[in-house]
Amino acid sequence: MTEETALIVGASRGLGLALAEEWLTRGFRVIATARGSAPSLEDLRKRFPDRLEVEHADVLQAGTVRDLGARLKDRRLDVLFVNAGIARSNDKTPVDVQEQDFVDMMLTNALAPVRSVQLLDHLVSEDGVIAIMTSELGGITNSTGFWPLYSSSKAALNMLMKGYAAHRPDDRRAMLLVAPGWVRTEMGGEEATLSIDESIPKVVDMIAANRGKKGLRYLNRFDQELSW
Ligand SMILES: NC(=O)c1ccc[n+]([C@@H]2O[C@H](COP(=O)([O-])OP(=O)(O)OC[C@H]3O[C@@H](n4cnc5c(N)ncnc54)[C@H](OP(=O)(O)O)[C@@H]3O)[C@@H](O)[C@H]2O)c1
């Protein structure tokens, strides 16, 4: 059987780094991107020198994503996973937020991930998986108002991905908006309910379970559909 390949965009730390480690442990070849120095990723490369490739991309700089696509033009991906995201002004409202924080989240969490998918999707095999890390907080129906500005950026991400999928009715690939649960990372904070080990292996199982299932779904780590 040929080796499977996953490209993870935004893998310097936190959930992206954990996704890289999990797929490497399962025997995948992994191409992991960072936008700056990524010591943890370099440590991981020492453990998996033959199967981990570290690449550069900043999702806010479309040119770096385009260049990545050009460097990888002869590769075939089984999984493309855009993980990059930020959280700013979590407890603020439209009245007291620094507007730039909201703009930065809309660009990094909504526009840039879907643009990255559009710039890299030609690398993904016909039965591969295209995934973006969203959040349970991106669902409007069940929102409690927690982290309202960040949540809005993830709702916008979900909407942009809906548009992406709607324009590709004949695409056979699985397109997944992935909600990992509330996880203890720099972003999630210490009060988050899950460890990385309680989330990421389930996310990777869920991605595998969706391979070959055409179309867009908004899913949690248990492979359950969430309300939009
Ligand atoms: N933790 C949670 O509870 C939770 C829950 C739901 C969803 N999520 C989502 O899961 C993803 C990962 O979150 P996390 O908890 O692992 O956060 P994190 O520890 O803060 O890590 C964020 C990652 O995104 C990268 N990133 C940020 N801006 C980028 C850019 N412009 N270009 C490329 N990479 C960029 C960071 O790279 P640098 O090191 O260069 O900053 C880092 O690798 C995010 O999309 C987040 O919204 C997290």
Question: What report would you give on this structure?
Answer:
This protein has helices at residues 14-25, 39-47, 62-71, 99-120, 148-166, 196-210; strands spanning 5-9, 29-34, 52-56, 77-82, 124-133, 174-179, 215-220. Helices cover 38% and strands 19% of the residues. It is built from 6 helices and 7 strands, in the order E-H-E-H-E-H-E-H-E-H-E-H-E. With 228 residues, the chain is an alpha/beta fold. Helix 4 packs parallel to helix 5. The protein has a 7-stranded parallel β-sheet with strand order 3-2-1-4-5-6-7, with helices on both faces. It has one domain (5-220): NAD(P)-binding Rossmann-like Domain (Rossmann fold). Bound molecules: NADP nicotinamide-adenine-dinucleotide phosphate. NADP nicotinamide-adenine-dinucleotide phosphate binds next to helix 1.
